[in-house]
Amino acid sequence: MMLMFPGSSPTRSPSISLSIHPCKSNLSSSMPLIPGKKLKQQHVRVDIVQKLKNGCMKLVDAFVDTVFEFSDQTLHPNQSNLAPVEEIGAPVAVADIQGTLPQQFPQGIFLRNGPNPLFGGLKWTRSMLGRSSFIWVEGEGMLHAIYFKKNINGEWHLYYNNRYVQTDSFQFEKHVKNRPSFLPAVEGDALAVVAAFVLNWLRFGEVNKDMSNTNVIEHSGRFYSVAENSMPQEIDIMSLQSLGVWDVCRAWNRPFTSHPKKAPDTGELVIMGIAPTKPYMEIGIISEDGKRMVHKVDVKLSRSSLTHEIGVTRRFNVILDYPVTIDLNRLIRGGSLIKFEKEGYAKIGVMPRYGDADSIQWFEVKPNCTMHLFNCFEHQNEVVVWGCRATDSIIPGPEKGLNKFEWFSQRFKPVHVTDEQNAEDGSLLSCAYEWRLNLKTGEARERFLTGNQFSMDFPFINSAFTGLKNRYGYAQVLDSVASSNSGMFKFGGLAKLHFEEPQSGEVSLLKGSEEEPIKVEYHMLENNSFCTGASFVPREDSLQEDDGWIIAHVHNEITNTSQVYIVDAKRFSDEPVAKITLPHRVPYGFHGAFMPISFHK
GO biological process: what's one of them (predicted)? Predict the structure, then answer.
């Protein structure tokens, strides 16, 4: 989830196309006919320009190869499951299943996205200009897929496959250069980062690689790999082949949020894109059939906020503006490109679905960093927002000169109310949180939902209730000790939140809290086992919101075994109904989704 400038070559053809999207551009059909003599003259000019361009690029490449040295970033021993894996090449059968897959479990594909850096791991560079490095959220996207197929006799057959998302920058580095080529352009010495910006732009037409490593979404029967650094990549989820960029018939030319939302009632897809230059944020609404941009507007933010998610209700779009900022001027002055401004303001905006910047009602809230939302909905005169709120940002990490491992370790440190502690202790521990935004009075009320016994993030719900009032939410529970000891987040369990039910008899640990925390059930994993990509799978023809299962990748660091757990959402604390051992290691990643599919028999 990194950055891309608007208009930086977003629409390029993949090397292989297996499907024709209704919005794929066909340039040849729109080219006017040119007389033969003029056409030959133009070909000569183009050939001369191309030769000059190629010569200049060779000089720039030679400069980079001579001046910049790529080196591997060293993983801490407790970060071993961040190491990349190889593509396996074809689906393999999965036979090791503990427990029983329910007959009511739908056929489909469980997909999870995550970074899998090329060439052995993340790199940093050194030159006369200083050092720059890729940050922990970077690394080429790799999809991990579990196929759940049931034959005519009701017998389950499972398969596993993985594959890189074949972005243009991946194709170039892997198949053309076959070595690291893009310079790290986010973290490091200011002069080295600025040089990386310029040299990447000159050589490749964009300042960063297209990572496409964060989430997988579906819209109108098509599937996309998404991340904040690039345009969506359409995916054939049967083969995991990348089919090219989705630009909504050339109507969208900037990064695309990792968490778009389907609007209740209409089925339209509400998207958001950020950029380091104006317009800093745009919101778009894509038709239910995915063929056209129904509405597009500049939000007219006064700064570039690294917003990761957008919310929706029946009538509104919910916009987060928190003080994790992207500032090119700050970088040029010698500061950080991305920075969490502790004294900065935070706002939540409520915009009518097809509104503009002037129609947004803004609410000032306490400074925070909220990367992920459970849900948003309308209640009487209020818009209610539920999310996972922290007081610091995990992106990009420490300021220049600070020890990266120690910085993360301190901020993941378990918080004990009675102990003496530094202000930074536990600042990355996010908690379930509520904002109630009164559209009539302009007042914003906010509170912790669950106390601070456990930190949680990567929330999700039954997606049928997106934008509507819901009773249940789910999240991954952070193991703060393991996270602190490894300098990276590790999730040692799952949580089920009962939004309408108080936690009877439990006293809030938070000073000034007047409302009792809500009820939370926990499904904790075995020691040294950690989960990623958790998602809700509704039971076929279910009538109740929590009638289904939670599915998640789980990795045991002692046995180095990767599994998929399936947990009954109604019997949440019970043992998983099935544990599926995978034939290959799956590194920790980001978001997952279960896509119901009717396989051809």
Answer: carotene catabolic process
**Would you give the DSSP letter of residue 9?**
S
Tokens of residue 50, six digits: 């191309």
Count of CB atoms situated within 10 Å of the CB of 99? 13
CATH number of the domain enclosing 167: 2.130.10.10
∠ CA(117), CA(123), CA(129), 5° rounding?
Answer: 150
Tokens 């992920």: give the residue. 372
Structure tokens belonging to residue 55: 């010569």
Is 241 contained in some domain? yes
CA-CA distance, 230 to 168, in Å (whole number)? Answer: 11
Annotate 434-487 with DSSP letters as a single string: EEEEETTT--EEEEESSTTSS-EEEEE--GGGTTS--SEEEEEEE-HHHHHHHT
Please indicate, yes or no, if residue 18 is contained in any of the structural domains. Answer: no
Q: What is the DSSP letter of 488?
A: S
- Report residue 367 CA to chain centroid gap: 22
- Domain presence at residue 16: no
pLDDT in tens, 243-273: 999 999 999 998 889 999 999 999 999 999 9
The span from the CA of 578 to the CA of 566, in Å, is 5
Domain count, the chain: 1
- In degrees, rounded to 5, the angle at the alpha carbon of residue 121 between the alpha carbons of residues 117 and 125 is 105
- What is the rounded radius of gyration, in angstroms, for the C-alpha atoms of the chain? 24
Distance CA 307, CA 5 (A): 15
Q: Tokens 């998610």 map to which residue?
A: 309
Residue 155: C-alpha distances to residues 148, 152, 209, 329, 366 (Å) = 10, 7, 43, 60, 53
Work out the pLDDT band at 61, boundaries 50, 70, 90: confident
Does 372 carry a binding-site annotation?
yes
Residue 591 annotated as part of some ligand binding site = yes
Residue 559 CB partners (closer than 8 Å, separation 6+): none
Backbone angles phi, psi at 38, to 5 degrees: -65, -35
Domain range for 430: 45-596
Distance CA 388, CA 465 (A): 18
pLDDT digits (tens, 9 = 90+) for 207-247: 899 999 999 999 999 999 999 988 999 999 999 999 999 99
- Is residue 442 within 8 Å of 361, Cβ to Cβ? yes
Contact (Cβ atoms closer than 8 angstroms) between residue 599 and residue 149: yes
In a domain, 219, yes or no: yes
Rounded Cα–Cα distance for residues 326 and 255 (Å): 14
Q: Establish whether 308 is an annotated binding residue.
A: yes
